[in-house]
Amino acid sequence: MHAFEYHRPGSAKDAIGLASKKEEGRYLAGGQSLVQAMKLRLSSPTDLIDLGTIKELAGIKASGGGVEIGAMTRHADVAASKDVQKAIPALAALAGIIGDRQVRHMGTLGGSLANNDPAADYAAAVLGLGATIVTNKRKIEADKFFKGLYDTVLEAGALITSVSFPAPKRAAYMKFKNPASRFAIVGVFVADFGGGKVRVAVTGAGVCAFRQAEMEKALASKFAPDAVANIKVKQDGLNNDLHASPEYRAHLITVMAKRAVEAALR
Questions:
Q1: In the CATH scheme, what is the code of domain 5-50?
Q2: Under DSSP, is residue 171 helix (H, G, I), strand (E, B) or coil?
Q3: What fold characterizes domain 55-165?
Q4: CA distance 218 to 207
Q5: Closest residue by Cα to residue 66 from 86, 92, 95, 36
């Protein structure tokens, strides 16, 4: 690990001010990805700006039929939240299967989104629910947030402060996980908002989370497992690694989507 300076600001304003002065500085959220990258010398920030004690960035509140979740809210807190369980049970369930117990008690919503790991679970929920990512500079629609491998539209120094999730009529998330890391080899989030509005988001299969338009159209006409059961997903552009081939990931998207619809209907 390369040498760095450690900062512990007391407010979001102070953190943003520090970031504006440190060209190679990085925000430290849960540290579940950044610290590991630093240990491997894949990342070498000159300054770490720890957000862990900034209370204004954490917390959950019911908002307009949905929920607003602070960026520094831990996965375990989302999973245990009565507000989330009531408004969007699928989101609470998703948070409860991220990584292992240690990851869930340290990892944060904002950190996960800013890192944008291609196999992260939260990306599927944000995109599948059509959430809004709020930063100190602007509000960003989920459909415009994810750009590519570990890449988002966040500007340099921008700080995610919260995420607003609208509540669907019904939703569910299913993933085929790596048995060691518990990352999604393929994960599918399905949300039905009623009135023929359905969103289907996929994580783990490509360079970043994406929506599956063909499945959305099929489920808008008939929200049932058999509506997607025979959809053959194209393997072009899907990930190819030691865990799964593009062909297998394409197959898993259909299988996980079918299971997600089944779960949403229970």
A1: 3.30.43.10
A2: strand
A3: 3.30.465
A4: 25
A5: 86
User: What six digits make up the tokens of 138?
Assistant: 């602007």
- The whole-angstrom separation of Cα 228 and Cα 253 is 10
E strand residue ranges, 195-235 = 197-203, 210-211
* All CATH 3.30.390.50 domain ranges in the chain, comma separated: 170-264
| Overall average pLDDT of the 79-107 stretch | 97
Residue closest to 211 by CA, chosen among 257, 167, 263: 257
Mapping DSSP onto H, E and C, the string for 88-132 reads CHHHHHHHCCCCCHHHHHHCEHHHHHHHCCCCCCHHHHHHHHCCE
pLDDT of residue 76: 98
For the chain, percent helix, then strand, then coil, each to nearest 5?
35, 25, 40
3-state DSSP assignment of residue 84 = helix
Taking the model in full, what pTM does it have? Answer: 0.95
